[in-house]
Amino acid sequence: MKGLIDDTGGHQGPHAKHAEKQSSWWRVMCLTGLDYFSTLGYQPAIAALAAGFISPFATIVLVALTLLGALPVYRRVARESFRGSGSIAMLERLLPWWAGKIFVLILLGFAATDFMITITLSAADAAAHAIENPLAPSWFHNGNMWITLTLIALLGVVFLRGFQEAIGVAVILVFVYLALNAVVVVVGIEHVVQNPIVVTDWWAALTQIHGSPWTVVAISLIVFPKLALGLSGFETGVAVMPQIKGSETDPDDYPKKRILGAGRLLTTAALIMSVFLIASSFMTTFLIPQKDFQPGGPANGRALAYIAHEYIGPVFGTFYDISTILILWFAGASAMAGLLNLVPRYLPRYGMAPQWARAVRPLVIVFTAIAFLITIVFDANVDAQGGAYATGVLVLITSASFAVAASAWRKRQRARVVGFGAVTAVFIYTTVLNVFERPDGIRIATLFIIGILVISLVSRVGRSFQLRATSVTLDAAAQQFLLGDAATGALHIIAHEPHVDVNREYSKKDEDERRFSNIPGEARTIFLEVHPSDSSDFEEDLLVRGVKKYGYRVLKVTSANVPNTIAAVLLAARDLTGVAPTVYFEWTEGNPVSNMWRYLITGVGEVAPVTREVLREAEHDVRRRPAVHVV
User: Fold this and answer.
1) Which of 18, 171, 209, 470 is the most buried (most CB within 10 A)?
2) What keywords does the record list, in alphabetical order (predicted)?
3) Ramachandran category for residue 52: left, alpha or beta (phi over 0 → left; psi -120 to 50 → alpha)
4) Statement: residue 597 has pLDDT above 60
5) SS3 call for 540
6) What pLDDT does residue 56 have?
7) Which pLDDT does position 213 carry in this prediction?
8) Which of 70-84, 256-270, 341-355, 558-572 shows the lowest per-residue confidence on average (mean pLDDT)?
9) Helices 86-94 and 71-80: crossing angle, nearest 10°?
10) DSSP string for residues in 297-309
11) Are 60 and 247 in contact (CB under 8 A)?
12) d(C-alpha 521, C-alpha 524), whole Å
């Protein structure tokens, strides 16, 4: 359980909430590039398998959508969610109460699909590169499963031990990998120039199968969603923003230099990837027979590695394979860090995960076990996992597009509403088409969503009697009230529902409690009022203000949950004064079962017994526990 609240980056690596050491935007780009650039290891082969001879044109459509759609969307996400929360946090702010929480949980299901499949697919592709290498030992052959599981297990070990030097390693891996890919692309293009017959043969086959160029364009628009893996990495790009070095003069509420660096990061990564995607798509389509892209073929899942071995030689090809294996494996590390950023950021705060979900090591064990299960179910097959990966990526980008369109609508930026609305529509089309074409992705995401929702409900019920306040702050007036009464040796707190704000309400409540609860006539009393807020919130910082109303002293606090808040304030009063207070309630009318459901959903219900149970759970010493008196 070490690292229960680990904000320093010791385990969370690139996604820690507070970075120990920040870096220039181009170095952080290498970090997000682990996920983004590593798709070159399998994207050209998947594109050729999905779109055939049309894959270059479908890739051009994908690049256009990247530069004109995803890039502007995430540049705006970077401006509005610069603390690394991403587009999910923007949507969380749009929808209040339980609707927002459930929507976030659903998005987390798709995000979990994206990141988990990144781990398993990258490891499976790394295994494919290792097995297909001509210098690989014979016992590697047909070892996709055990090699993939070994890589995933090593990834888990790394995160169990700690993960601090992610950026330094990422810079080296990305620079070497991109340099080797540049060599492969240049050599491939040179070979195409020297042998133009390959272009002629490709065009003849294309026109024979698909007819006119307009048909090719139309089909490209239809099939490009199958290439959606080339869009991965944008959500990671905004998640790593806290790692970008800003300016000390920038205000915390708008770190201009960090936002500018994030924009450069996203733009540069998108441009680099676009060039490689287009070049590799044309080159591999020209030079590799279509049959070699099929499952079991030498280019399946490793098109650029095939070119490296075929046209440059086994020595260079082996170096290329090693570089690809390392960056694919490290892309899994980036995805694991993303999961370790998302789950502690949302679920425990919602009360929808056990307390141990804040700790890094238990989560690493859980995620590693899930990755093992996914790998076994999909038989460590890259192609079989592509649909699930694309679904997760597309849903996240679609939700981000909707978030920025809604943001533009709120700010009455009509031109941007139209632009982002159009981008949202395109991504909705892309996502829906991908789901129909490859339904396995939505099935896996649905399993993650159901799992998250069930765990969340069970956890919320199980944690319902816990203290939820992460901190309790008493202002000067509140402290004066409590310390003054504690000097008499007793604290009498009257719980009051703040529905009617009139003098008679307070005087009658004080009179009734003194009479029915036997509060001594000379004793001083303090009212405690909890003003309700969003009851779907779970953890919160409480501010208790002392005010005077109609001659009565009142402690006012705003909270999503009444009984847990009353218990937290009573314990804070005890810690301040050294006197265990007594709180006075009236019984709540209604069926106790329905009151319990009201408590779970709205944070009210049968307040007195729940307050007592929360106090019992929080303080086991009866002598130090605040007393609850109900009439």
Assistant:
1) 171
2) Membrane, Transmembrane, Transmembrane helix
3) left
4) no
5) strand
6) 86
7) 72
8) 341-355
9) 70
10) STTTT-HHHHHHH
11) no
12) 8
Residue 352: DSSP 8-state: -
Instruction: Collect contacts of 344-348 with beta carbons under 8 A, ≥24 apart.
Output: 345/17, 345/85, 346/88, 346/104, 346/105, 346/108, 347/108, 347/452, 347/456, 347/459, 348/538, 348/539
Bridge-based pairing state of the strands 469-474 and 552-559 = unpaired
Q: For residues 427 and 445, what is the distance between their CA atoms, to the nearest angstrom? A: 18
What is the C-alpha separation between 280 and 291, in angstroms, rounded? 18
pLDDT band at 595 (very low <50, low <70, confident <90, very high): low
Give the Cβ contact number of residue 524 at 10 Å. 14
The Cβ-side half-sphere exposure at 631, using a 13 Å CA radius, reads: 13
Find where tokens 């929080």 sit: 618
pLDDT digits (tens, 9 = 90+) for 328-343: 888 887 778 777 777 7
Spatial contact of 468 and 564, defined as CB atoms under 8 Å apart: yes
Among residues 31, 32, 23, which one has the least CA distance to residue 245?
A: 23
Q: Is the confidence at residue 472, as pLDDT, over 80?
A: yes
Residue 23 is classified by DSSP as B
Residue owning tokens 């920025």:
404
**For residue 204, what pLDDT band results from cuts at 50, 70 and 90?**
confident
Enclosing H/E stretch for 283? helix 256-287
Residue labelled with tokens 């987390």: 108
Q: What integer pLDDT is reported at residue 276 of this predicted model?
A: 92
CA atoms within 13 A on the CB side of 516: 14
C-beta of residue 474 within 8 angstroms of C-beta of residue 575: no
- Tell me whether residue 549 is exposed, middle or buried, using C-beta atoms within 10 angstroms of its C-beta: 0 to 12, 13 to 18, 19 or more: middle
Indicate the residue type of 281: S
Per-residue confidence (pLDDT) for residue 604, from 0 to 100: 60
Please return the burial class of 532, using the count of CB atoms within 10 Å of its CB with bins 0-12, 13-18 and 19+. middle
Say how many C-beta atoms besides its own lie within 10 A of residue 66's C-beta. 19
- Inter-residue contact 42 to 281 (CB < 8 Å): no
Token pair, residue 454, equals 């069930």
Q: Please, which pLDDT band fits residue 507 given cuts at 50, 70 and 90?
A: confident
Would you state the pLDDT for residue 594? 62
Which string of DSSP letters, residue by residue, matches 137-171?
A: -GGGTT-HHHHHHHHHHHHHHHHHH----HHHHHH
- Comparing 96-100, 495-499, 562-566, which segment has the lowest mean pLDDT? 96-100
Read off the tokens for 606: 């049968």
- Report residue 420's pLDDT band, with 50, 70 and 90 as the boundaries: very high
Residues in the chain, overall count: 631
- The candidate with the shortest Cα–Cα distance to 349, out of 44, 101, 611, 22, is 101
Helices (H), 351-381: 360-377
CB 320 within 8 Å of CB 308: yes
Share of the chain above pLDDT 70, in %: 88
Q: Which residues of 389-423 are buried (b: 16+ CB within 10 A; e: fewer)?
A: bbbbbbbbbbbbbbbbbbbbeeeeeeebbebbbeb
Instruction: Tell me the pLDDT tens digit for each residue of 135-160.
Output: 777 777 777 888 889 989 988 887 77
The first and second tokens of residue 424, run together, are 């949202």
